[in-house]
Amino acid sequence: MTPSELPSQRTGPWLVSPRLVLRRFQPGDAAALAAYRSDPAIARYQAWETPLTVERAAETIARYRHDAPDRPGWFPYAISLDGALIGDLGVNLHENGMQADLGFTLAAPHHGRGYATEAVGRMLEHLFVDRCLHRVSAECDPRNDASARLLDRLGFEREGLRRANTRVRDEWADDLLFGLLAADYHRRAGR
């Protein structure tokens, strides 16, 4: 962990895994966020608009400072490697405080190295062990094989398919639905 990633009131919350830090977004992350969110290969299965300018990325990060991980709604975590932003992981805490949805994005140069699996795995540990959630859900476009395989590897069950459910640019895309219960997570972890 670099000194800029050490915990503080200004940068919290944060979670550490063997190679990564999941932390609050910082103003210096704008260029990296704009770069990977503008990559057509990364944006292919995402509903956000592209390209994302550095200025709009900075505005987005400024809005994130009002978000809190313990309140219902989405909280965006920056995925950081050696102090550099390489992706993001969002957690949407439900009103009941016992369920959440998650989504993740990783910049293309960092694919295939296990970083997304490590980040999502660390978040699941936090949600099920530290926060004692009952259930975590996720969804992805069925054509996004890498994301579906990652969720399978981490123990999520495929629970269904919503056909032509999400508008992505000029087409309607299917949503492959996944769920993981706390009991299943703890059983897999040997707890």
UniProtKB/TrEMBL annotation:
Residues of the N-acetyltransferase domain: 20-183
Annotated InterPro entries: Acyl_CoA_acyltransferase, GNAT_dom, N-acetyltransferase
The protein, known as: Aminoglycoside 6'-N-acetyltransferase
Pfam hit, one: Acetyltransf_3
UniProt source species: Actinoalloteichus caeruleus DSM 43889
Lineage: Bacteria, Bacillati, Actinomycetota, Actinomycetes, Pseudonocardiales
